[in-house]
Amino acid sequence: MTRVHTLLAVLVLTVLVGAAPPAAAAEPSGQTGATPFVKIYDPSDDQAWYINDHTFIQDARGTWHLFGITHAEPAVDDDEDTFAHATAPSLTGPWTKQAPVLETDPAYGETHLWAPHVIKNGSTYYMFYAGGGADGARHAINLATSTDLFTWTRLPSGPLFRDGAVARDPYVVRIGGQWVMYYTATSDPGGGNHVVAYRTSADLVHWSARSIAFTDPSRGFGGGNTESPFVVFEAGAWHLFLGPRGGYVGTDVFTSNDPFRFSADQLSGHVFSHAAELVNTDGKWWVSHAGWGQRGVWLAELDFGTGSSRYAADASSDPSGRVVLVSGADGRQEAFAGGPDQVWSRYQTVRNGPWSDWFPFGGPKFATLSAARDLDGRLELFALGEGRVDHRSQSAPNVWQGWENFGTAAHDLTVAQNADGRLEVFASGSEGIFHRWQAGGAWMGWEPFGGPADSVLATGLDATGRLEVIAAANGTVQRRKQDVPSGGWRAFEPFGTVPGVAHLALNRRPDGALELIAGGAAGTSRRTQVAGEWTGWTAFGGPPGARVHIGRNADGRLEVFAANGITTEHRWENGTGWSAWETFGAGAVGSGFGTNADGRIDILSGGRMLYGRYQVTPSGGWSAWAPAGGPLIG
């Protein structure tokens, strides 16, 4: 039987080893998300290898250690018989590959080693892991110990316990005066519901009978969607991370006041991660991503919906335009502008600036552009012009392939990322909206999506990980939403009217709620989500007939920009509400918005000429406009 072995056996959280916060606390109002992931370690040499369920721990000298399931690609989960080991001076690297630790031992009934989790108690390191064979009824949670993190010795008495419900993915944490081990299982030895079980211990060796902390409605035997549980106290409540949910690359977060009682209706966020490992260090929360075919281990900053991340997960709020900015895997931004002869590009030579010279990038004339980053760090650029959509992508981070004809002609287009990391492109034309999406690394063909003809489009990912598509034409706005993260779609539904609607923008607040701005004949109009439900349209002011953008400051405050051919204006959240509209610059044909690695917003805007403006400090004041070179886009 093949077991889909996903999300991690999550990390060592040394800050949690000690007295726990009180179990009864106020529910946080925010939604959990994460920034884009950046690769920190690839175990491959002359052959591709993967890391799957893994764990991090820092030793007494400050060196970080990573342990994890490993195997050469392609994956063979029942042949995963050693644990990878790597070390680094910092969580972000550089990581050095070390000799593997542990090997399967037939005396312990092991044919595979899964999901290591390491903690430190006193001067001893404890590695809990799942070891077993083909007989799911004999699966065991095992223990090995070490004093230096390089040499490990199994517990002589054998497995800590066996659980016939295919027990695996242990995670151990101190809560109050006892140790608690969470792990994935099924409600019955022969199957039943997928659950998160837990046991308690006073000495890390002798464990109680199991109890259930979470029961999922899904049923089966073996791998399910309650794998790699991890429980942490933050923002006034307990959070349970588990998966795979919404696809192989997907982690759901559930929030409760009780660390031993979580339910499916307590969903509070989603992270685009497989084998998600949480780490709290230097005052920040981090979440990792790894797995089969994922090309190593990735890291992103985590936000529990409190603004604790400088730039937590958000949705594209400028779906297409004559100018776009997008950040690469290394945090450097790239800019693209649709010129009268072709697309032009430039890039930051180092993170946070400065910029290279502009250079010709090919593609159609006077293109409308949209760009996104794949989960593995590669950029993809889409250009609408000359009667069709063209596409150019990277074969590896910072390595571009040539242009390809991507198909149908369109009025507008936008690219979005599903909860499982797959990109999806939406394009409107005279026959309505069509879409294409990634499947197994390749792009599927165009399929009808419905909706109004020749509409303007915007997409956003809500707090539950489901995409929303907003489409507007002839003053009428429509909305379509996924049934489940990365899954099927509901039908389009009416979403109100905005006379003369010319442009739409979506962005996501730190608490996961979506914000929608429409540029119309009488100025802008606004809708926002409150407790997961949309308010009605309200007038929001600003210049008429404007293209709009919703930016998010590093401290989480939103800022709205609106530009027509006469003026550019902006207003922002000031802590008590929204500021008045303020002149921000001359009118613009196109404006691109990006975020530096340090959280400062960058703007590239203009018509006959391009000018740049940026925040001097994160969430702070703005520089003056300065010529930026590049093509004439007006």
UniProtKB/TrEMBL annotation:
InterPro entries: GH43_arabinanases (IPR050727), Glyco_hydro_32_N (IPR013148), Glyco_hydro_beta-prop_sf (IPR023296), PLL-like_beta-prop (IPR058502), Rhodanese-like_dom (IPR001763)
Keywords from the UniProt entry: Glycosidase, Hydrolase, Signal
Residues annotated as domain Rhodanese: 620-634
One of the record's GO molecular function terms: hydrolase activity, acting on glycosyl bonds
Species annotation: Amycolatopsis xylanica
Gene3D superfamilies found in the cross-reference section: Glycosyl hydrolase domain, family 43
Record's protein name: Glycosyl hydrolases family 32 N-terminal domain-containing protein
Top-level taxonomic group: Bacteria
SUPFAM superfamilies, A to Z: Arabinanase/levansucrase/invertase (SSF75005), Fucose-specific lectin (SSF89372)
Secretion signal span: 1-25
Family indicated by similarity: Belongs to the glycosyl hydrolase 32 family.
Entry annotated with the keyword Transmembrane: no
